[in-house]
Amino acid sequence: MKIIRTRQRPFLVVLDVFFTVLAWVGLLYLLAQGLWPLIDNHDGPRIDASFFDALDTLQTYLWVAVVNAAVLIGWARYQQRKSKRFAQRRLPAPVVDDQGLSKSFKLTGDRLEKLRTPGSMTIHNDQDGDVSHVVTHYFPVDPAELPPPLAPLEHPFVIRLPAEDDDNREPLSHV
Fold this sequence. Notes:
Layout: H1 10-39, H2 51-85, H3 98-105, H4 109-116, E1 121-125, E2 131-136
Antiparallel strand pairs: 1-2
């Protein structure tokens, strides 16, 4: 069984790999910047670290977040514009008449008539995609062999339940 896979353009693959590597390098850089002072502690604990050092780190994280948001928003806008261009692909297929169907799949009158019959069937195709033969999985019944339709009931049973706003309803007695 073959799985249908859509090939991506080489440029988009390279672009995807580039941004993935860039994101990993940025993550590893930020981790190293944050963890290196914990490993290199021969100066002792960093109790005397200034408030501005923390603000510099926070500013770096905020800039990374802004760049990340800009990239994601730009990608979403690109996909939105791209999907508008391909909206015509989502339109329903045009209706094909018998002549067009016969011409498209090179069907004979007998095969076309077999395809028109109700029921399940297996359609075999040749190498060109044309219909080579059709195998039906049912046995057609002659209308003369069908049993007669059911007759309506002579005295059907009707159960009438009163509605809430029915004036003719009898009060219910709770036992």
